[in-house]
Amino acid sequence: MATRKGRRMTDREKKMAAEVRAEMREKGLLPEKKKPLNRKKFVDQARAVLAESIGYDTIPYLLWALSEMLGHRAYLEASPDLEAVGAAKVILLAKRRMDFEKEQIAAGREKWTVGELCEAVQDVYRM
Q1: Do the beta carbons of residue 69 and residue 82 sit within 8 Å?
Q2: Which residue in 35, 72, 97, 107 could disulfide with 84, CB within 3.0 to 4.6 Å?
Q3: What is the pLDDT of residues 46-94, one digit of tens each?
Q4: pLDDT tens for residues 107-118?
Q5: CA angle in degrees (0–180, nearest 5) for 14-20-25
Q6: Is residue 31 classed exposed, middle or buried when 0-12, 13-18 and 19+ CB atoms within 10 A define those classes?
Q7: How far apart are CA 66 and CA 88, in angstroms?
């Protein structure tokens, strides 16, 4: 059986809903609206930070940040959000590359192609 779409809200209903949301935000029942994230700028900034501070002393902080992101959940939801999934992919990608390199070294190979590495890790990207 096909489900029926609800009717569209009237302008009056939209205005009333907006007022209720504003009131709930004032009372602290709803989070404040956030500015949309400029993803390109954000990633470029993170790359710059990583490039300037790469070293063994940053490893504990990176591990801490990854563990924090793995526990990230959407607002009032039990399931992990996209940020936690992204952090999990980073960890799985690093593990897959480490396993690939260990296999290659155990097989007596010291060099491999980028294509071979890509084949070894491509399933993590497709998750």
Answers
A1: no
A2: 72
A3: 889 888 887 788 888 888 888 888 887 766 667 788 888 888 898 999 9
A4: 999 899 999 999
A5: 125
A6: exposed
A7: 8
